[in-house]
Amino acid sequence: MAAASHCLEVSENDKQSNVTTPSTMKELPVITTNGDRDYRLEDFEIKKTIGTGTFGRVCLCRDKLTGAYYAMKILEIADVIRLKQVEHVKNEKSILKQVIHPFIIDMLWTTHDDTSLYMLFEYVCGGELFTYLRNAGRFSSTTGVFYAAEIVLALEYLHKQQVVYRDLKPENLLLDREGHLKITDFGFAKNLTDRTWTLCGTPEYLAPEIIQSKGHNKAVDWWAFGILIYEMLAGYPPFFDDNPFAIYEKILAGKIDWPRHIDPIAKDLIKKVLVQDRTKRLGNMKNGADDVKKHRWFKGTNWDDVLNKRVKPPIAPKVKSDGDTGNFDDYPEPDNHQKSPPLSEEELELFNEF
């Protein structure tokens, strides 16, 4: 399994380092309005925890008024501040408000109270691509092409919106009821017109320029795309070790062992995106994503059909009902009696606009 994502913030202005660790959550209270409907927290019944991220918990919840199911991401403000994630959380909200795409999770509403932040998402019931990959061992080239194509279109869209995603990995790719992808968890995403110096991501998926603190741009998403294709086809990433620093050394050395069964055409694409020099990395050159889309591995792909979900997915998730959580792992539920530390007015003001 890939190591957890982490983010070490180094902005041009202050060059301060902030490291993230997992947080804990608690019960829901009340409040505010947003979007087409006046949502309130008491409109939702929390059913079950379906995911725990680097600094949050995601729960399946049910709308008491309509009976519809949604996913609610809950973050304790005290943890967000302590782990220096204020800007990341604000980025996640602002970016998800601006993006609409078939292969990107849909955020419907956000609010906060005096202890926590809440983000309401569509419920994507098929589970993580990671789970299907581990159960299969590895994917066929045909399956790899299908999911890679949906990711290409999502990355192309994000990059046109001047957004770098920075956390592409199988754990952040959900399957909907039909088996199409939804990219989730935009905690490390950032609006970017030039470069950033934030050390963000999962060790196995980090591009060389992130490790070397050279400043990075949207090219890091194409590097991660190459790692993902390799992992889908091999069953494991090309650079791995128990020690993150050993992983970094392997990435910078750039030596890849190629399993015999990997399709030579897929191998050619992987090699062209896993190029150390980002100016020569496929996807990051003058023609952008078009260079990737025109690669021989995608020969026969009708990109309009992919975008409009007219291609039948190779994986059909088993879903019994709209609120079925069978495709997600079980997680311990939070202690609802545990009190959060009181927050100062200054701390609460950080999220006035949330």
TrEMBL record:
Q: Which InterPro entries match?
A: AGC-kinase_C, Kinase-like_dom_sf, Prot_kinase_dom, Protein_kinase_ATP_BS, Ser/Thr_kinase_AS
Binding-site residues for ATP, renumbered to this chain: 73
Q: Gene3D superfamilies annotated for this entry? A: Phosphorylase Kinase, domain 1 (3.30.200.20), Transferase(Phosphotransferase) domain 1 (1.10.510.10)
Segments for region (Disordered): 1-21, 314-354
Pfam families, sorted: Pkinase
Sequence ranges of Acidic residues compositional bias: 344-354
Q: Does the keyword Kinase apply?
A: yes
Instruction: List residues of the Protein kinase domain.
Output: 44-298
Q: AGC-kinase C-terminal domain: which residues?
A: 299-354
Q: Which UniProt keywords apply?
A: ATP-binding, Kinase, Nucleotide-binding, Serine/threonine-protein kinase, Transferase
Which family does the record claim for this protein?
Answer: Belongs to the protein kinase superfamily.
Protein name listed in UniProt: Protein kinase DC2-like isoform X1
Look up keyword Cytoplasm and say if it applies.
no
Top-rank taxon, per record: Eukaryota
